[in-house]
C-alpha cells in the first residue's frame, strides 16, 4: 500500500494543480480536437480520443434502421453488438477481440453517466441501452481501448458515450415505427411483428439559463425463438408415440466431421421437439433532462425511467400424437426409441429501472474548471416467474420466482481541469459502488408471488476508489499526453443463503459468507500525436489497465444436490485481469477521402472467463476462472469519402483483421494456441449514403464477420443453433423528406435473409416503416 501511494503521488504531481473527471465526459470547450477522430466533425467528441476514436452524428445516424438505440452504432469500425432481436436486453457490445459475453470490458455512458452493468460479466449484464430512445440521440462517441487514464479499467475493451439532445429553442418531435420479420427455421414458421412510438418536447428559456427536455417511448415486439429444445434419449421403452421431431442436418454433419457439440440436440439421436416461446417484449421509457447555463455555471439533471416486460408463454411444440394433438412434455417414443421431452417452460419477467444523475461545472479561475458529477442506476424490481413445464404454464401450476432488488450502483466524480493553448493539466477523484441481491423462491402458482417459499439467496457488494492525473502538452506539431491512475478496490458482504439440511436449522435459511477481498493498482498511459503537415498525422498510444472482478464473477457459488453449499463452485482466489495495450494510427486526408490505418496490440494477464477446467482444488468445474495469458493483435483500415465518386454520395468503409489467442491456460491446456472463441478473424462494416434528390436519400449498410470458434478449444464449428457462425447482412434504407417537418422512411435489414447464429439465432430478413415529425 505504501509503495502504491508513493507511486501515485509522483504520478499526480506532474498534473498538479489541475483536476479532471473520470466517467463524466469533458464539455465541448474542453474536449480534445484530435484530427484522428473518425466520423462527424460538426461537434467535438465527448470522450478523450486516445487510440482509435469514432464519432457518429446526424449524417451517420439518419442512415440506419434503428429499432433500438444500440443499432445506431452497427456500422462502426471493428465493432458489433450481440443483439438477437429488437428489444433484446442482452445486447453486449464487442470491441476488436472482446468476446460477446465479456460485458465488463466496456464502459458505456449516457451524457457522461454510467449505464454499464458491472454487477456481472456475461450476456445477462449488458449496458442499459433502453434508457435512451433513438430519437433523442444527438451523437455517439466510441473510443477503442484504455488509452486514457481518465477512465477505469473496465474500458479495457472500449468506451461508448451517448449524448442526448439539449434544446436550444422550443422544439418537439415524434417518431412512429412498424416492423415485421417473416421467420422460418426447422418446423417454426411465423411472422413476428412490433412497433414503437417516441415523442418529446424541449423548452429553452428566452434570454435565461434554463432548459428542459421531456421524452418518452413505448416499444413492443415479438422476437423469434431463441432456443430449440431437444429430446433426451432414455432406456426402457414406452411413451406416447409421436411424429414431427426435427433432425438438424448441420448438427449431423458437424458430428460426422468431429466439430459438433457433444450431446447437442438436433442430431439423429436427439432431435428437436420444440422451439422456445418467442419473447413478447414491452418497454416503456420516460426521461427528464433539465439544463442550466449562465456563462459561468453549467448544470444538468437527468432522470430516466425504464419498464420492461418479457412474456414467453407460447412454445412452438413440433410433436403430434396419433390424434394430431400437440405434445410438449413427458415420455414419448419415435419408432423403437423412447425419449423425455422437457424444458418448454412458460415465463414472464417484470423489471423496473431508473437512472438519476446530476452534473455541475464552473470556471473557478482563469483557464480552470471544477466539475462535480453524481449518478445512480437502480433496479428496484426484477421478478422472473417460470413454470415447471408447459402444462403448469397453461394451468397455473407450480413454478419458481427469481426476484432481484434492490440492486444497482452509484458513481461519483469530483474534478478540476486547467487548459491553455500550450498545455492541459488534469486531476480527478472518483468512486463507484455496486450491489446485487437476488432471492429464488418456489411457487404453487407460477403466475403469482403469493405464498412463495424461500429457496436460495445470493448477495454481494463491490466498491472502487480512484485517483488519476493526466498532462497534455501541445508542442506543435507534436502533442504528448501522459497519465497515471490509482485504483483501490474491495468486494465485501457477499454470501449465498439456502435452506439448512440438518440439525435444528433444517428447513431454515442458512447463509454461507464469502471472505471480503481487496486489491489496488497503479496504471499508466502515454500518447504521442504528430502532424506531418496539414493533412497527415500519426498517433501512438500506450497504456496498462486493471479490470477488477464484478460481484457476479466473485460470488457465483452454487449448491450440491443435497442443498448444501459447494465450496468448489467458485474461485476464492479470482484475480483481476491486467492488460498492456498499444495502438498505432496513421491518417491522411485527401479532402474527398480520408484514410485511417490502425494497428493494435493487447496482452491480458489473468483474463476472467467462464469455462470448464480445473479449479483451485484441482476439481473439474465450470465457473469464472483466470486464463493465465491471452493476446490479441490486429489491423484496421477505414476509408471515408465525401461527395465521391458522385456528388451527394458519402461512403464509410472499414475492414479489420483480428488475431486473438489463448497463450497460457494451466486450467485447460488444450486451449493454448487457439483463437479465442467468438472472435472472427475478419470483420467488415460499411455504409453508403446517396442523395437521390434534394428530398430523397438512400443508404446501403453492410455487416460481415468471418466464422469464429464456438468454444475455447476450437473444436466446435458449425452453422446452426448452438454454434457461432459467419455473419453477412446487407441493409437498405430510404428517407423521404416530405416537408421541412415531416420525414417518411422505409428499410430492410438482412436483405439476403442470411441465417446467422451467436449460439442463438440472429434476426432474419426484417422490414421497417417509419414516420418522423420534428418542429
From TrEMBL:
<dbReference type="InterPro" id="IPR039426">
    <property type="entry name" value="TonB-dep_rcpt-like"/>
</dbReference>
<protein>
    <submittedName>
        <fullName>TonB-dependent receptor</fullName>
    </submittedName>
</protein>
<dbReference type="Pfam" id="PF07715">
    <property type="entry name" value="Plug"/>
</dbReference>
<dbReference type="Pfam" id="PF00593">
    <property type="entry name" value="TonB_dep_Rec_b-barrel"/>
</dbReference>
<dbReference type="GO" id="GO:0044718">
    <property type="term" value="P:siderophore transmembrane transport"/>
</dbReference>
<feature type="signal peptide">
    <location>
        <begin position="1"/>
        <end position="20"/>
    </location>
</feature>
<dbReference type="InterPro" id="IPR037066">
    <property type="entry name" value="Plug_dom_sf"/>
</dbReference>
<keyword id="KW-0406">Ion transport</keyword>
<keyword id="KW-0812">Transmembrane</keyword>
<keyword id="KW-0472">Membrane</keyword>
<keyword id="KW-0732">Signal</keyword>
<feature type="domain" description="TonB-dependent receptor plug">
    <location>
        <begin position="55"/>
        <end position="159"/>
    </location>
</feature>
<dbReference type="InterPro" id="IPR036942">
    <property type="entry name" value="Beta-barrel_TonB_sf"/>
</dbReference>
<dbReference type="GO" id="GO:0015344">
    <property type="term" value="F:siderophore uptake transmembrane transporter activity"/>
</dbReference>
<keyword id="KW-0675">Receptor</keyword>
<keyword id="KW-0998">Cell outer membrane</keyword>
<keyword id="KW-0798">TonB box</keyword>
<comment type="similarity">
    <text>Belongs to the TonB-dependent receptor family.</text>
</comment>
<dbReference type="InterPro" id="IPR012910">
    <property type="entry name" value="Plug_dom"/>
</dbReference>
<dbReference type="InterPro" id="IPR000531">
    <property type="entry name" value="Beta-barrel_TonB"/>
</dbReference>
<dbReference type="GO" id="GO:0009279">
    <property type="term" value="C:cell outer membrane"/>
</dbReference>
<keyword id="KW-0813">Transport</keyword>
<feature type="domain" description="TonB-dependent receptor-like beta-barrel">
    <location>
        <begin position="341"/>
        <end position="751"/>
    </location>
</feature>
<keyword id="KW-1134">Transmembrane beta strand</keyword>
Amino acid at each position: 500500500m505504501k509503495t502504491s501511494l508513493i507511486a501515485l503521488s509522483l504520478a499526480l504531481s506532474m498534473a498538479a494543480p489541475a483536476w479532471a473527471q473520470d466517467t463524466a465526459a469533458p464539455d465541448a470547450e474542453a474536449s480534445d480536437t484530435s484530427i484522428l477522430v473518425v466520423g462527424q466533425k460538426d461537434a467535438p467528441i465527448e470522450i478523450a480520443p486516445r487510440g482509435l476514436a469514432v464519432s457518429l452524428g446526424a449524417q451517420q445516424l439518419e442512415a440506419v434502421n434503428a429499432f433500438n438505440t444500440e443499432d445506431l452504432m452497427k456500422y462502426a469500425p471493428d465493432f458489433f453488438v450481440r443483439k438477437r432481436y429488437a428489444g433484446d436486453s442482452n445486447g453486449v457490445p464487442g470491441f476488436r477481440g472482446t468476446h460477446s459475453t465479456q460485458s465488463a470490458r466496456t464502459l458505456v455512458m449516457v451524457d457522461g453517466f454510467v449505464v454499464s452493468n458491472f454487477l456481472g460479466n456475461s450476456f445477462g449484464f449488458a449496458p442499459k441501452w433502453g434508457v435512451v430512445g433513438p430519437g433523442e440521440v444527438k451523437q455517439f462517441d466510441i473510443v477503442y481501448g484504455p488509452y486514457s487514464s481518465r477512465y477505469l479499467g473496465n474500458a479495457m475493451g472500449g468506451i461508448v458515450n451517448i449524448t442526448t439532445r439539449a434544446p436550444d429553442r422550443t422544439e418537439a418531435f415524434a417518431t412512429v415505427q412498424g416492423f415485421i420479420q417473416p421467420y422460418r427455421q426447422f418446423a417454426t414458421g411465423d411472422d413476428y411483428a412490433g412497433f414503437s412510438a417516441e415523442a418529446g418536447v424541449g423548452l429553452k428559456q428566452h434570454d435565461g439559463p434554463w432548459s428542459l427536455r421531456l421524452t418518452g417511448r413505448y416499444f413492443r415486439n415479438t422476437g423469434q425463438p431463441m432456443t430449440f429444445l431437444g429430446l433426451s434419449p432414455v432406456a426402457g421403452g414406452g411413451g406416447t408415440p409421436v411424429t414431427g421431431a426435427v433432425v438438424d442436418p448441420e448438427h449431423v454433419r458437424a458430428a460426422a466431421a468431429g466439430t459438433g457439440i457433444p450431446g447437442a440436440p438436433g442430431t439423429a439421436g436427439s432431435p428437436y421437439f420444440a422451439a422456445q416461446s418467442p419473447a413478447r417484449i414491452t418497454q416503456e421509457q420516460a426521461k427528464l433532462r433539465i439544463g442550466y447555463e449562465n456563462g459561468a455555471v453549467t448544470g444538468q439533471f437527468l432522470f430516466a425511467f425504464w419498464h420492461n416486460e418479457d412474456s414467453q408463454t407460447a412454445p412452438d411444440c413440433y410433436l403430434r400424437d396419433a390424434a394430431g394433438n400437440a405434445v410438449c412434455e413427458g415420455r414419448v417414443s419415435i419408432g423403437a426409441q423412447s425419449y423425455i421431452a422437457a424444458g418448454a417452460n412458460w415465463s414472464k419477467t417484470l423489471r423496473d429501472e431508473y437512472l438519476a444523475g446530476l452534473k455541475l461545472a464552473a470556471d473557478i479561475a482563469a483557464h480552470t474548471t471544477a466539475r462535480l458529477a453524481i449518478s445512480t442506476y437502480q433496479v428496484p424490481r426484477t421478478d422472473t416467474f417460470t413454470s415447471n413445464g408447459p402444462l403448469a404454464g397453461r394451468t397455473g401450476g407450480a413454478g419458481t420466482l427469481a426476484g432481484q432488488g434492490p440492486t444497482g450502483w452509484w458513481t461519483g466524480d469530483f474534478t478540476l481541469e486547467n487548459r491553455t493553448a500550450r498545455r492541459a493539466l488534469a486531476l480527478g477523484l472518483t468512486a463507484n459502488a455496486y450491489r446485487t441481491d437476488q432471492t429464488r423462491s418456489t411457487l404453487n402458482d407460477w403466475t403469482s408471488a403469493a405464498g412463495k417459499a424461500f429457496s436460495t439467496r445470493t448477495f454481494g457488494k463491490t466498491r472502487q476508489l480512484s485517483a488519476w492525473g493526466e498532462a497534455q502538452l501541445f508542442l506543435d506539431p507534436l502533442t504528448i499526453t501522459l497519465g497515471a491512475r490509482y485504483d483501490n478496490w474491495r468486494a465485501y458482504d457477499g454470501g449465498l443463503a439456502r435452506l439448512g439440511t440438518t440439525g435444528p436449522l433444517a428447513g431454515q435459511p442458512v447463509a454461507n459468507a464469502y471472505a471480503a477481498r481487496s486489491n489496488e493498482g497503479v496504471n499508466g498511459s502515454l500518447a504521442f500525436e504528430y502532424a506531418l503537415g496539414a493533412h497527415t498525422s500519426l498517433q501512438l498510444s500506450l497504456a496498462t489497465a486493471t479490470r477488477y472482478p464484478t460481484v457476479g464473477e466473485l460470488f457465483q457459488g452454487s449448491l450440491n444436490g443435497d442443498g448444501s453449499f459447494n465450496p468448489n463452485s467458485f474461485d476464492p482466489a479470482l484475480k483481476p485481469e491486467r492488460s498492456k495495450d498499444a495502438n498505432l494510427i496513421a491518417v491522411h486526408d485527401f479532402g474527398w477521402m480520408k484514410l485511417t490505418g490502425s494497428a493494435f496490440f493487447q496482452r491480458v494477464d489473468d483474463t476472467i472467463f467462464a469455462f470448464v477446467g480445473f479449479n483451485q482444488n484441482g476439481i473439474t468445474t465450470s465457473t469464472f476462472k483466470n486464463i493465465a495469458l491471452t493476446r490479441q493483435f490486429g489491423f484496421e483500415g477505414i476509408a471515408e469519402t465525401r461527395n465521391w465518386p458522385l456528388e451527394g454520395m458519402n461512403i464509410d468503409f472499414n475492414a479489420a483483421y483480428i488475431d486473438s489467442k489463448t497463450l497460457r491456460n494451466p486450467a485447460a491446456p488444450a486451449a493454448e494456441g487457439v483463437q479465442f472463441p467468438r472472435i472472427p478473424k475478419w470483420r467488415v462494416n460499411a455504409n453508403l449514403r446517396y442523395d437521390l434528390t434534394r428530398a430523397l436519400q438512400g443508404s446501403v449498410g453492410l455487416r460481415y464477420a468471418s466464422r469464429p470458434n464456438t468454444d475455447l478449444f476450437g473444436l466446435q464449428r458449425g452453422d446452426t443453433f448452438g454454434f457461432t457462425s459467419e455473419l453477412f447482412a446487407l441493409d437498405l434504407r430510404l428517407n423521404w423528406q416530405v416537408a421541412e417537418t415531416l420525414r417518411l422512411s422505409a428499410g430492410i435489414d438482412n436483405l439476403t435473409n442470411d441465417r446467422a447464429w451467436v449460439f442463438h439465432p440472429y434476426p432474419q430478413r426484417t422490414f421497417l416503416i417509419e414516420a418522423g415529425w420534428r418542429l
